[in-house]
Design brief:
The complex is a heterodimer of chains A (about 280) and B (about 325). With about 280 residues, chain A is α/β, with parallel strands linked by helices. Helices cover about 35% and strands about 10% of the residues of chain A. Chain A has a 5-stranded parallel β-sheet with strand order 1-2-3-5-4, sandwiched between helices. Chain B is α/β, with parallel strands linked by helices. Chain B contains 12 helices and 12 strands. In chain B, the strands form 2 sheets. Chain B has a 7-stranded mixed β-sheet with strand order 2-1-3-4-6-5-10, sandwiched between helices. In chain B, strands 7-9-8-11-12 form a 5-stranded mixed β-sheet, with helices on both faces. The chains are: A alpha/beta (about 280), B alpha/beta (about 325). Chains A and B meet through α5 and α6 of A and α3 and α5 of B.
Chain lengths: ~280, ~325
């Protein structure tokens, strides 16, 4: 039933792995939100490569930003940008760097500093409502990002303004940069926090398409704003780096990339020796 | 008033309303700072948004509205807008190059009795440091109203150092990057902006009575600054005195110094400003007197400088540092 989505997600993961060399990328968070982004772009968002400037389109804002390789991969697979363009990752002649920006078709706004795009999303959702539009705004937040005070300020404001066309999706991979969230600044019970802030909330497995389907069905019929907590695994798809606190950012050798691509396709686990705990 | 729209507005609030009626892209936002716009909620309906005391969210929200084609005019106290929300201004509005108009209330000495938490005296330094950001410092309500239509139409982000005092002088039409000049004297040019224009004009009158040849430059926009006017001043005048209720670092004195250096000239210039210190809070008139901005103090400062042509300015001199007792 979801074979096509699974294949798409696998290709997006291949792109992410290929971007984690020659300078590297934030591979852990990119892999955790890959299924989520694939599902939203393929099945939920009312948007297409020819409609990236339509006022009627749905918006997806990637607030945590450093997971952008998953977005680059998704946009490339769905025809927003040519697949070959991904080879320009980190080239100063292109605009594919570690955080998103509007020079890439399909990217709505730049991010990188945490705790910004929920506020921006509120502005977009508010204008849509003023114009009587039916389109929606999806904001992807990292769970580590929930440390930022501005997020909670914005959660209050969105609820106060009753924005039913606004959906927050938390990529709940349970890691901050290098530490588990519950070990540093515990977030649980996160559902209760959203409810207390007067958001609707659902928790799902962010790697299961049937649960993703359920989470995003019928959202508009409820009074919003809406939060979906997607429980995910950092590094999902590569057992050798899954849930590894030290594989937040990775800059692998070409040999390691070959091993990781094989591992993704059910091959042997990669033997990784390149530096861990890289600070970016 | 010839400013491109049909208006007989005499208040900031009425002008915003007229602009909002003429252009439905305009929206008014506030972080619960309604003093200057108290009647707009009922007049503008959904185009008025009060986010509560959430300056960061307000600025991000304004960026989101601007992405959809709106022109948000946002209001908060100048300190909380430019400091609490600084990164949102720099990152969302600045990097995005979005036409958000930021209106900071009670800037500079106008925070009078509030104390150092409320003293926006680095706001110009912060705002002008953001690429594409433009900065307007009106001297009074007439100046503010003359500029507002042009600022709302302009595609750039703007910081407006809000001041709606009674008019100090009669102004010429507003043009982005153009200063106003009062008098053509050549002994001294008093260069200023904001509500201090009134005190500077009075000081100029006093100096003229004593036979000093004076011109007053009212900068209006600090960014872009009127470089042509400042270079003419440097060529014509023996002394330039920049008078501003801002830290000496990063304000108009710095702007002028940067301009002169870029043009490889070194006119004699003094700064009447807030050196590296907060100002003593109190009633505005007393603050002005205590901090050296009264017409008499400006006058005597200029007289001293003219009497000792070779004196050099020590950048850290001036009145004792105000160290708040409880901070």
């Amino acid at each position: 039933m979801y074979t096509e989505l699974e294949r798409l997600a696998l290709r997006v993961r291949e792109h992410i792995i290929r971007m984690s060399t020659d300078g590297g990328c934030f591979i852990g968070a990119s892999l955790s939100c890959a299924d989520l982004l694939v599902y939203l772009y393929a099945r939920v968002l009312s948007i297409s490569p020819s409609r990236v400037n339509d006022l009627d389109r749905d918006y997806l804002l990637l607030s945590k930003g450093h997971d952008v390789p998953a977005l680059y991969g998704t946009l490339a697979e769905l025809g927003y940008i040519p697949r070959e363009r991904l080879r320009a990752h980190l080239s100063v002649d292109d605009h594919l760097y570690w955080h998103p920006n509007r020079s890439i078709p399909g990217v709505e706004f730049h991010s990188g500093s945490l705790g910004h795009l929920l506020a921006v999303g509120i502005g977009i959702a508010m204008d849509i409502r003023l114009r009587g539009g039916r389109n929606r705004v999806f904001v992807i937040l990292g769970d580590g990002e929930l440390n930022e005070g501005s997020v909670w300020e914005s959660l209050l404001v969105a609820a106060a303004k009753g924005l039913s066309n606004l959906v927050v999706v938390v990529d709940r991979n349970s890691f901050q940069a290098n530490v588990e969230t519950e070990q540093l600044i515990p977030l649980e019970s996160l559902e209760d926090k959203f409810r207390a802030f007067r958001w609707t909330v659902k928790t799902i497995d962010g790697h299961r398409f049937d649960e993703l389907e359920q989470a995003f069905a019928n959202l508009q019929e409820m009074q919003g704003p809406h939060a979906v907590i997607a429980r995910t695994v950092r590094g999902k798809g590569l057992p050798s780096i899954e849930r590894r606190a030290d594989r937040w950012f990775a800059n692998f050798t070409h040999d390691e990339i070959a091993q990781l691509l094989a591992e993704l396709h059910q091959g042997d686990a990669a033997t990784l020796t390149s530096q861990t705990m890289i600070v970016r | 008033m010839n400013n491109g729209i049909a208006t007989s507005a005499t208040t900031y609030e009425q002008m915003l309303l007229d602009l909002a009626h003429a252009d439905d892209r305009l929206m008014v936002l506030t972080a619960e700072n309604r003093a200057a716009i108290r009647n707009l909620p009922e007049r503008l309906g959904d185009r008025f948004v009060d986010v509560g005391i959430c300056e960061q969210t307000m600025v991000g929200l304004a960026a989101g509205l601007a992405l959809r084609g709106r022109i948000p005019v946002v209001h908060a106290l100048a300190t909380f807008l430019t400091l609490r929300a600084f990164e949102f201004i720099r990152t969302d509005v600045g990097i995005g190059r979005l036409p958000v108009k930021l209106v900071g209330a009670v800037p500079g000495l106008l925070s009078d009795g509030n104390g150092p938490t409320h003293q926006a005296i680095e706001d110009i330094a912060l705002m002008r440091g953001i690429p594409a950001m433009r900065v307007f410092c009106p001297s009074d309500v007439q100046d503010l109203l003359l500029a507002l239509p042009a600022i709302v139409r302009d595609p750039y982000p703007w910081y407006i150092r809000y001041n709606a005092a009674e008019p100090a002088v009669s102004h010429t039409p507003f043009m982005v990057g153009r200063a106003e000049m009062f008098g053509r004297g050549t002994d001294v040019a008093l260069v200023t902006y904001g509500f201090l224009l009134r005190h500077v004009i009075d000081a100029a009158t006093r100096l003229r009575e004593q036979g000093v040849s004076v011109r007053v430059i009212h900068a209006r926009t600090i960014k872009p600054v009127d470089g042509e006017m400042l270079l003419a001043v440097a060529a014509d005048c023996r002394l330039i005195a920049v008078v501003e209720d801002h830290f000496r670092i990063g304000g108009l004195f710095s702007v002028a110094a940067e301009l002169f250096q870029a043009n490889r000239i070194a006119p004699r210039m003094i700064s009447i400003s807030l050196a590296d210190r907060w100002f003593r809070p109190g009633r505005l008139k007393e603050v002005v007197d205590r901090e050296g901005f009264s017409e008499l103090q400006i006058t005597s400062r200029i007289e001293r400088a003219l009497a000792v042509p070779e004196a050099s300015e020590l950048l850290n001199e001036h009145t004792p540092v105000f160290a708040p007792a409880i901070l």
